[in-house]
Amino acid sequence: MKPLQEVEVRRGANAAPMTDLVAVEAPVALVFNGISHAVMMATPTDLEAFALGFALSEGLLERPSECYGIDVAEGAMGCEVQLEVSAAAERRLKERRRNLAGRTGCGLCGIDSLQALDLAPPPLDAPLQIELAAVHRAFEQLPALQLLNAQSGAHHAAGWSTLAGELLVVMEDVGRHNALDKLLGSRVRAGAVLEDGFVIMSSRASSELVLKCARLRVPLLATISAPTSMAIQIAKNSRLVLYGWCRGERAVRFA
């Protein structure tokens, strides 16, 4: 399945029709040992990395070795990603599904649901002294590597940088969470040490993005737009360095 699709557009009321490229948003089902866990709307690329990153950043897997294999199948309605995982991971998945089944339509309701929230991953070691200049260098390299967004204008990007500011990998998706999961999964699959680099993103910093980075021991997250209050609090509790408003020579350190 391709990440871009041609559509007919008109650039003006009386203009002749022409073709343009838009981002493909497709259903992607994540299935663990035959158990369907979630259907995500995503860009249908790098799905093995996406599935592994999602499983790790959501706490379904405690370590990469709990995943024995990943298969991707494309169908008429979307894509299905089958993960073969350990028995311990399957038990966690079933427990997560039982907790979700008890929630009401308004979302997280009641003391039990609040207590079930995992908003405090183990704190990182003492924060690394990553120079702000390295963050700026990484963002300067980002536009040239946003290949899908250059054609669609609709893709978020998550980039992995060395501590010196060399941008090594960029993953894109219509969803910012998906882009981050693809990035984290790709680095894990490559055997990278996530404590030895940092993440930049072309989005705001939500609590979910900070949580995903903290769970995988990423020391720094920097985003183009602002963070939320919960994102800042989780970053402080996790000792994760959080920058927002990274535009040009500007950057604001929130945690």
Descriptive report:
By secondary structure, this protein is an alpha/beta fold. The protein folds into two domains: 26-116, Ubiquitin-like (UB roll) (Roll), CATH 3.10.20; 132-253, Cytidine Deaminase, domain 2, CATH 3.40.140.10. Helices cover 34% and strands 30% of the residues. The protein is built from eight helices and twelve strands. It has helices at residues 47-57, 87-101, 110-116, 132-145, 147-152, 176-189, 207-215, 229-238; strands spanning 4-9, 18-23, 26-32, 35-42, 67-74, 79-85, 156-162, 167-173, 197-201, 220-223, 241-247, 250-253. The strands form three sheets. Strands 8-7-9-10-11-12 form a six-stranded mixed β-sheet. Strand 11 (241-247) and strand 12 (250-253) form a beta hairpin. Helix 1 (47-57) crosses helix 6, helix 6 packs parallel to helix 7 and helix 7 (207-215) runs parallel beside helix 8. The model is unreliable at 101-115 (pLDDT under 50).
Write the SSE topology.
Blueprint: E1 4-9, E2 18-23, E3 26-32, E4 35-42, H1 47-57, E5 67-74, E6 79-85, H2 87-101, H3 110-116, H4 132-145, H5 147-152, E7 156-162, E8 167-173, H6 176-189, E9 197-201, H7 207-215, E10 220-223, H8 229-238, E11 241-247, E12 250-253
Parallel strand pairs: 3-6, 9-10, 10-11
Antiparallel strand pairs: 1-2, 3-4, 5-6, 7-8, 7-9, 11-12
Helix pairs in contact: 1-6, 6-7, 7-8
